[in-house]
Amino acid sequence: MVYNARWGILATGGIAKTFVKDLLRDPKARDTNDVTHSVTAVASSSSKTRAEEFISDINIPGNPTTYGSYDELVADPNIDIIYIATPHSHHYQNARLALESGKNVLCEKSFTVNAAQTKILVELAKQKKLFLMEAVWTRYFPLSVQVRELIQKGEIGEVLRVTADNSIGQGGWDQSHRMLNLDLAGGALLDLGIYSLTWAFQTLYHTLPLSQRKPPSSILSTMVKTASTGADEDTTMLITFPTTTPSNNLQRTSHAVAMTAFPVDSNPDKQNSARPAIRIQGTKGEIQVDGPAYRPERYRVISKTREGEPVKAVREVENVFPSNGHGMYWEADEAARCVRDGKLESEGMTWEESVVIMEVMDEVRRQHDLVYPEKIESTDYPIKL
Ligand SMILES: NC(=O)C1=CN([C@@H]2O[C@H](COP(=O)(O)OP(=O)(O)OC[C@H]3O[C@@H](n4cnc5c(N)ncnc54)[C@H](OP(=O)(O)O)[C@@H]3O)[C@@H](O)[C@H]2O)C=CC1
Ligand SMILES: O=C1OC[C@@H](O)[C@H](O)[C@H]1O
């Protein structure tokens, strides 16, 4: 039996459009034969007309219902799961609205503005027996799954160090733009740094059995804020994970350097996407992942060669994007399967891991006194933002 997930789309901005286009691509093209997707409703906080335009722009079939408010959307009985695509500042209020109304939720990254908000959403989902997932789409790429499996199989030995960079070399946004606007929880850390942290965590944390996953023992960071709004524009984190599997009785820790920036670029000339944005370094070799970190295109496995040994061939694997998609359909398939199976959370991005990553970002912000407006940081509900 094929399960069809009926989606409600909350907000009609840039990523909502990209996500819905991927939802509409033929699942069979990516060998997904057990779930399909349909969009049954779209809501815009701007107007019902905006929702109608969104539908006609993308040519969404099936005549979805349109709403001029999110309140109406969450009351629609013909929705299995709501995709939240508002700015970071609004995720807590929007996700809470959906959960309080009994709806399953896939919410864009960063999940919320702080860990306290994420914890409340998780408790609510648990209490109401609803599915809730932070939409960290990169984790569901076949490439990410393969890299995690290679690490777990010991292909590069004990992984001791990861460097992950998600820097875009862009700027010049207006102060009100969501990338810079503190009222929308803008800045590099929450928007882009989350992907560098994703790589640190999915390699050094997620690859361990659940019982062995331990939050970082130390977090050091540096941050540069933009003069215009005070949002962070260049943030680097050094994250140390406690040892869980001592090798040869050596109490070694692993660590990650997670970087993100607006003014510098992980791939400056854009001519060659074969720049490793991520390096995963182990005792027996290294896996390099070519950026951008949020939409990686390939990885290569380089085995360590000892003096006198023949050099082993470098294995390079492309991440293929079936039906010329963006790659958001893999997370959508995962969400649909979880809802179908009555799972409340996804194994690829557990609630616990989302909370730990939010706690890392809280700590980095604390170290640099980066605070968003009180309304945005608040756990009160409902608040009109
Ligand atoms: N996974 C990925 O690759 C990407 C994820 N993102 C994430 O998606 C989210 C949205 O980003 P993006 O689509 O680029 O943002 P946009 O600014 O393009 O869209 C945001 C939408 O949110 C709604 N919204 C509600 N309240 C506000 C408000 N006060 N100010 C602005 N918008 C508001 C609007 O829709 P409406 O008027 O219809 O209600 C708006 O169109 C962010 O969390 C971001 O981190 C972004 C880009 C890529
Ligand atoms: O999630 C994202 O990935 C792609 C970036 O361009 C975007 O700013 C960010 O929100």
UniProtKB/TrEMBL annotation:
<dbReference type="InterPro" id="IPR000683">
    <property type="entry name" value="Gfo/Idh/MocA-like_OxRdtase_N"/>
</dbReference>
<comment type="similarity">
    <text>Belongs to the Gfo/Idh/MocA family.</text>
</comment>
<feature type="domain" description="GFO/IDH/MocA-like oxidoreductase">
    <location>
        <begin position="146"/>
        <end position="287"/>
    </location>
</feature>
<dbReference type="InterPro" id="IPR036291">
    <property type="entry name" value="NAD(P)-bd_dom_sf"/>
</dbReference>
<protein>
    <recommendedName>
        <fullName>D-xylose 1-dehydrogenase (NADP(+), D-xylono-1,5-lactone-forming)</fullName>
        <ecNumber>1.1.1.179</ecNumber>
    </recommendedName>
</protein>
<feature type="domain" description="Gfo/Idh/MocA-like oxidoreductase N-terminal">
    <location>
        <begin position="6"/>
        <end position="133"/>
    </location>
</feature>
<dbReference type="Pfam" id="PF01408">
    <property type="entry name" value="GFO_IDH_MocA"/>
</dbReference>
<dbReference type="GO" id="GO:0047837">
    <property type="term" value="F:D-xylose 1-dehydrogenase (NADP+) activity"/>
</dbReference>
<dbReference type="InterPro" id="IPR050984">
    <property type="entry name" value="Gfo/Idh/MocA_domain"/>
</dbReference>
<dbReference type="GO" id="GO:0000166">
    <property type="term" value="F:nucleotide binding"/>
</dbReference>
<dbReference type="InterPro" id="IPR055170">
    <property type="entry name" value="GFO_IDH_MocA-like_dom"/>
</dbReference>
<keyword id="KW-0560">Oxidoreductase</keyword>
<dbReference type="Pfam" id="PF22725">
    <property type="entry name" value="GFO_IDH_MocA_C3"/>
</dbReference>
